[in-house]
Amino acid sequence: ATAKYRTAHATRERIRVEAFNLAFAELRKLLPTLPPDKKLSKIEILRLAICYISYLNHVLDV
């Protein structure tokens, strides 16, 4: 691979990772935690989102 190709690939990857991290940050803002500013890993965010969605579905069903 040429240097130009590697640079373009690295730029695309950087943009992808930034978008990925931004999506997790946005999701994190929607999840209730104690303390509110608790730092969560990506897997913790996903697991908490699953539980929270399940809880909200339960609330709607009652």
Structural account:
The chain is an all-alpha fold. The chain contains two helices and no strands. The longest helix has 28 residues, at 3-30. InterPro entries: bHLH_dom, HLH_DNA-bd_sf, TAL-like. Keywords: Developmental protein, Differentiation, DNA-binding, Nucleus, Transcription, Transcription regulation. It comes from Hylobates klossii (Kloss's gibbon).
Task: Please give a quick description of this structure.
It contains two helices and no strands. It has 62 residues and is mainly alpha-helical.
Tell me the layout of helices and strands.
Layout: H1 3-30, H2 42-61
Low-pLDDT regions: none
In CATH, the architecture is Irregular
Q: Tell me the fraction of residues in β-strands, as a range.
A: under 5%
Q: What composes the largest sheet?
A: none
Number of strands: 0
Rg on CA atoms, Å: 17 Å
Number of helices: 2
Helix content: over 70%
Number of domains: 1
Task: Determine the structural class based on helices, strands and strand pairing.
Answer: mainly alpha
Q: How far is the N terminus from the C terminus?
A: 59 Å
CATH first level: which class?
Few Secondary Structures
- The coarse silhouette is elongated
Return the CATH topology. MYOD Basic-Helix-Loop-Helix Domain, subunit B
Helix and strand string, N-terminal first? Answer: HH
Q: Please, what is the average pLDDT?
A: 96
